[in-house]
Amino acid sequence: MQVTDYISHFLSGPDSTWSFVSIPFAVAFIVFFGIYIYLRRQSRRLTLGYVIIFSMLFAYKANGVLMVLLPLTALLSYYMTRRMAMESDSRRKRWMWATVCVELAPLLYYKYTNFLLDILHDLTISNFGPLSIILPVGISFYTFQAISYTVDVYKQRFTAEVDLLEYFFYLTFFPLLIAGPITRAETLLPQAQHRRHINDTMVYGGLWLIMSGLVKKALIADYIAQYNNWIFDDPTGYSGFENLMGVLGYTLQIYCDFSGYSDISIGIALLLGFELKENFRFPYQSLNVQEFWRRWHISLSTWFRDYVYIPLGGNRRGLVRTYINNFVTMLIAGLWHGASWMFVIWGALHGFAQVVHKMSKPWLDRLPDRWWVTFPCWLITFIYVSVAWVFFRSPDLSTAFTILGKIVGDFSLSYLVPFVETRMTWTVFVVLGFALHAVRQRHVDKLRKFYVDTPWTLKLILLFIVLQLVINYRLSDIRPFIYAQF
């Protein structure tokens, strides 16, 4: 297939396989990037406009005609927020709530209409049927970015002195469209308002992150997903040991999938001269669930902390209210992931764990910082998080309890050797994935610096090795990012 064919495919229409790990995107990005480098030397505003146009094409490939929701949200959010900023104190709050409601409306309709109809059907025993609604890819992420901008302007944490072109760039920036990370205006807009020099550290650091993301997503996550899906589709057809392997596999898969996406997203932004904040910090090293949420999907957890937990009262209104606020915030976070009671249960499990940890903190703080204390804390946390992922991934409660029941009641180590012999590559990838996850952040930083400082020939060889591994082991069908559905 020639380059012109890829460009024609890119412009032809929406594509269900469209993602950062697809060949059409890679070709389109190379062409885009070459022109971007030239325009960046000419004019800042021309460059922003060019990125917006590409972002709109990117959104169209992912969503088809539903991409119109993105520029519509940007327009309404921008003008209503500016109007809010000009109002008197007595009217600002009403304008803030009106703007947030407008920003939320598409998300609520496309994501939760059928969920509410199902609830009404169960309550009234009527014939409410589901509507034919397609959830736009990435709608949760750009909606939350719009809300954060409106609230930050309302609270005067960020200025409303942003022109329409800059705000469009902020809300439509294509590395963030499919699955975040959720980026605040204070992080991205100042960089868009001033043309910055792109140095070697940014370029090669971006390439490092892209390669890291490809290994996590396109190599590990996509390969191990097939077996994990078999387990969650039919847990009764497998032994307790095989079910346990499926749970461990999914625990690694969702981390590699989403962390890999974030790495690629942040890496692409770095190539373009924009620095985004990290979104994952080795979450499976956590010693408790609170720490897990300081390391997992950091952009989402801090968003819920700042725009849900603190407005509810945070920890300012007594212990009981703090526990309630923690639990309610995690319920909402669970529901944000999808219109399903399984996500609500997953959020409740994490909310319950956070409440228990906060209640136990005075006692836990007196424990010595020794391995014979930290290891059980890590093990309990990892097991709890993995069990919670069972409810997150399972289509219903029956499947979740079947998997857990098989693990507890039908477990035998006699399956270990035949399992490894039959699924050697899967086992190697899972062991390697968890082993890499155990590496400390300082070692990763040193390795990244070493890559940045190596000659370009070695960089090229490493890139070729990564691409070859991805080509050799990836499945024929391109698996979408798990978090793209949220």
Overview of this structure, please?
The chain has helices at residues 3-12, 23-40, 44-63, 69-86, 89-124, 139-154, 164-172, 185-193, 200-233, 240-271, 289-295, 298-312, 319-337, 341-364, 371-393, 397-409, 416-422, 424-437, 441-453, 456-473. It has 486 residues and is an all-alpha fold. Helix 5 (89-124) packs antiparallel against helix 6. The two termini are 33 Å apart. The model has no long low-confidence stretch (mean pLDDT 89).
Features:
mainly alpha; 73% helix; globular
Summarize the structure.
It is built from 20 helices and no strands. It has about 475 residues and is mostly helical.
Give a short account of the largest sheet.
none
Strands, total number: 0
Percentage of β-strand residues: under 5%
Radius of gyration (CA) equals 23 Å
Note the gap between the termini.
Answer: 33 Å
- SSE topology string: HHHHHHHHHHHHHHHHHHHH
* Annotation field: number of helices: 20
Instruction: Determine the oligomeric state from the structure.
Output: single chain
Uncertain spans:
none
Look at the helices and sheets and give the structural class. mainly alpha
What share of the residues lie within helices? over 70%
Average per-residue pLDDT, rounded, comes to: 89
Taken from the alpha-carbon principal axes, the silhouette is globular
